[in-house]
Amino acid sequence: MTPTARSAAGASFRFPEGFLWGAATSAYQVEGSPLADGAGPSIWQRFAHSPGLVKNEEHGDVACDHYGRWADDVRLMKDIGLTAYRFSISWSRVFPAGTGRFNAAGLGFYERLVDALLEQGIQPLATLYHWDLPAALDDRGGWLNPDVADWFAAYAEKVFRVLDGRVRMWATLNEPWVVTDGGYLHGVLAPGHRNLYETPIASHNLMRAHAAAVRAYRAAGKHRIGLVVNLEPKYPASQSPQDVAATRRADAYMNRQYLDAVFLGRYPEEMRDIFGDAWPDFPAAELESLREPFDFLGVNYYTRSVTRDDPAARPVRVARVEQPRHAYTETSWEVYPEGLTDILVSVKERYGDLPLYVTENGAAFYDPPHPLGDPHPDPFRVAYYRGHLRAVREAIRRGVDVRGYFAWSLLDNFEWSLGYSKRFGIVHVDYHTQKRTPKQSARFYADVIRTHGDALAGG
Ligand code: BGC
């Protein structure tokens, strides 16, 4: 993949009619009250309460108290001018043990949220799985148990039956790569396993669960369902055959592993090279069943990787090469907006003309610890959004069918094993008082939305 040229100077930044302007969050990261109203514990509840696994022993017990403050938060969205909101549903609120007894009070929270969004003209996009597997299912093997696909489809079907009249956009899974790389290979995310042999099995069961939920949707729902993946374009650090091959492995592992599965019904051939004898021979009929047609793809984009061969870095045997002249975010991710154009274009080229949404994009930067008034100044984040929104516009200009954009995140929130140390919000959250203060980036985004993109021309 070669880097893209920037938009031609003077190009219009106006977005197509009907383009969705959104922001995103996820249940465990913002809601708090994880056990309220009869909910069961999730693997994140357990992980975060296990000593030493999350920075500063932080957890999501309170988070942003979105569970209590959802009505205020919907008003905040309205003030910014959002036309869409992506949130996730916590499986263990709806089925406390993952299967079996349905908990109407748990789903009731999302019904109230959705009704309030619709009243404000904000379109809900509900993700069914953003990493918080019911703990009771983990006790039964979690993503390693082949039955998980049926468990997930049964949960999804119940939610579709209650909410599909009001929610018209659904996502099955958020970022299967992170679930397996963080949760099963490196152990830095729940459920915290480190096992090469488990990782491909968890990945495959995630894909089976996605396809099973799409099939359940065709029976129970009438609108649109998709999958959300995090994609990171990989560029070789040099043209040496070793670096070029390493870049192919990195791309297969992170990007094509999931997209080839759902679009082509197969896994990239590099997977066996990466995993060796840990890569199982999946039955052909099962692979074929992954290719269940769905309605849109959500792309989460944060950064790119310039990749070199590194035989010691098993299993993928790649290393990321720092770019000394480029800016980096607080999570050490290179700021590289052109990569977003490149990855959107490459998805269209490889998999065809499916509607795409940028379902997450954003950055953690140092924000002053004490509120400096309203709006909170966050110039680096403003620059990040300007660059990346322009990159989306450029992909549209190049013929990619991008239909919406969701900033990550609406609120500063619980950044998984990094606790509350990294702030991704366009709205600042004071975790002591729960006061929300829009940052300069929220104002900037509001201007972009109000002008349908024209505000991107400045700066
Ligand atoms: C996830 C979010 C996370 C964000 C920033 C994405 O991988 O979907 O939950 O907070 O990245 O790390």
Percentage of residues in DSSP E strands: 5-15%
With helices defined by DSSP (H or I, 4 residues minimum), what is the helix count?
Answer: 15
Q: Please, what is the average pLDDT? A: 96
Spatially, the strands of the biggest sheet line up as 1-2-3-4-5-7-10-11
Helix content: 25-40%
> Which small-molecule ligands are present, each listed once?
beta-D-glucopyranose
Sheet with the most strands, sense and barrel status: 8 strands, parallel, barrel
H/E topology pattern? EHHHEHHEHHEHHEEHHHEEEHEHEEEH
Shape: globular
> What's the total number of strands?
13
Which structural class is indicated by helix and strand composition? alpha/beta
* Uncertain spans: 1-9
**Oligomeric status of the shown chains?**
single chain
Rg (C-alpha, Å) = 21 Å
How does this model look, in words?
Helix 3 runs parallel beside helix 5. It is built from 15 helices and 13 strands. The N terminus is likely disordered. It has an 8-stranded parallel β-barrel, surrounded by 5 helices. The longest helix is centred in the middle third of the chain and has 24 residues. 39% of the residues lie in helices and 14% in strands. It has 459 residues and is α/β, with parallel strands linked by helices.
